[in-house]
Automatic annotation (TrEMBL):
Keywords: Hydrolase. The keyword Membrane does not apply. The keyword Transit peptide does not apply. It comes from the Bacteria. GO terms for molecular function: hydrolase activity; transferase activity. Residues 25-186 form the Metallo-beta-lactamase domain. SMART domains: Lactamase_B (SM00849). This is MBL fold metallo-hydrolase. It comes from Salmonella enterica (Salmonella choleraesuis). Pfam families: Lactamase_B. Gene3D superfamilies: Ribonuclease Z/Hydroxyacylglutathione hydrolase-like (3.60.15.10).
Amino acid sequence: MALRIRVLLENHKGAGADKSLKARPGLSLLVEDESTSILFDTGPDGSFMQNALAMGIDLSDVSAVVLSHGHYDHCGGVPWLPDNSRIICHPDIARERYAAMTFLGITRKIKKLSCEVDYSRYRMMYTRGPLPIGENFIWSGEIPVVAPEAYGIFGGHDAEPDSILDEGVLIYQSTKGLVIITGCGHRGIANIVRHCQNITGIKRIYALVGGFHLRCASPFTLWRVRRFLQEQKPEKLCGCHCTGAWGRLWLPEITAPATGDVLRF
């Protein structure tokens, strides 16, 4: 089977997707090879589970659930997982966090980005560092960033900047190179790729799949990411969710997987 990724939930529906499938702003992928199956993110609600049933997929026996970071559109569907599911994520996954706006030196919360989840029902594996999953997968752990950008604030009264330190990615080591699966890419695509190369010792990037966080990126950021990817020369770029129209326009030979699609590598 090599590597197969089934898009259980994404912002849009694929052109040939069944009418019963639901699209929601968020992401949920079922990632599988011959010996390991991983549910990567759960979207904002139970739609990923409804779509899985409609696609004839049983999620009760996946090897692990991986949560890329603590935003509601990636872990809001956790309550629909079976009790005792094995969940791998960063220790900060449940921290209260908000989108924020600063005006005249005053920071205000404008939208809650975290979600209320009772993680005590599950077999939680919290890790800040890389973690092997099965024979060919690795959870990246924290992704170093030289100058982290704040994407909001944590809950509380001190308006502590939130640079999404809890974000990690899933790495698949194939004979053709690394397949890197991202939730949102908040930590930056270049930082993500370099970290994956460092922890695996593999420089060749075969594919990048997931959200690239370019929806509201500046022209300079888009140019920088494009130049970096041209240097890396991945064979496949599959940008969805928060990649955005500008990201898909600027990046060479990119495809946009959507709800119901099946990707093979």
